Amino acid sequence: MFWIRFGLIVIIVFVLISIVKFLLRNLLKIEKVKKEFFSFNHFNESHRKIDKGLRTISTITLLALTCVLLFFYPNFIYLFLIAVIAFTVLDYMVRAFFEWKYTQYPKQAILTLTEMGLILLAIIIVVEFKLLGAY
């Protein structure tokens, strides 16, 4: 039952993000930029370096946090979710900054920040209303 709820929530969030992006593109006259699926889409060398460093630091931090929380503080496992959310927000902020400063389509940053906000809102709603069950 958990996976059915999880899949349904993911689909709803994906559809909501797509609709909001479509509406924002039309309202703000933002051009659609072709991006490859599952690629990093770095805008310049500095973005590549910062993104690689951020991913490395987040991986090491999350692995260490997992070990510490599982072995020493099992009651505080929710801190892992907070760390994942923080690193995700940081990643979106870096992407939005480089879209705004270093691309020929600076309005794309609006879409990136909107997507980040919707994902955060979805996580907050799921956790607050316990839509995935008791945890």
Would you write up a description of this structure?
By secondary structure, the protein is an all-alpha fold. It has one domain. Helix content is 74%, strand content 0%. The chain has four helices and no strands. Helix 3 runs antiparallel to helix 4. It starts with a helix and ends in a 7-residue tail after the last helix. The mean pLDDT is 92.
Ends apart, CA distance between termini: 14 Å
Q: Can you tell me the number of structural domains? A: 1
Low-pLDDT stretches are none
Report the count of strand segments. 0
List keywords for this structure.
135 residues; mainly alpha; 74% helix; 0% strand; membrane; transmembrane; DUF4181; DUF4181 domain-containing protein; transmembrane helix
What topology does this entry show?
Blueprint (H helix, E strand, L loop, with lengths): L1 H27 L16 H27 L6 H25 L5 H21 L7
Helix pairs in contact: 1-4, 2-3, 3-4
In short:
The protein is mainly α. The chain contains four helices and no strands. Keywords: Membrane, Transmembrane, Transmembrane helix.
